[in-house]
Amino acid sequence: MERLFQWLEQDAALKEASSAYENGKIYGVYGLGGSAKSAYAAHVLAKTDKNAVIVVPTTEQVNGWLTDLQYFSPQLRVYTYPLVQHTVFTTTTKSLELAAKQMEALTALRGSRQAVVVATAEDNL
User: Which residues does 113 contact at the CB level (< 8 Å), separation at least 6?
Assistant: First the structure.
């Protein structure tokens, strides 16, 4: 796997993405498909101690990213930020369990140890 990462790091766009993340900038990676994107993200995340929020389009992709990140970098603390239900007047969580998971993810981001949160853009934005 390390050989794959060495090969990927030769790509100028991926070098730029790694550098941007390491310098605290927001960056999107396009063009890698399937688990290649999450494998590379896990590799970059494992090289630093910075927090990250990964936003993906659908809930199914959240589950895929969680599985991949835990497989490729099991030492990472990975959380989800569950969906919320929007109403005209207020935003409420679907259950106390989801509210607890949201608080856990936000607390982890504020902590002193590295945390990775995977969320969907479906309903959170």
Answer: 49, 77
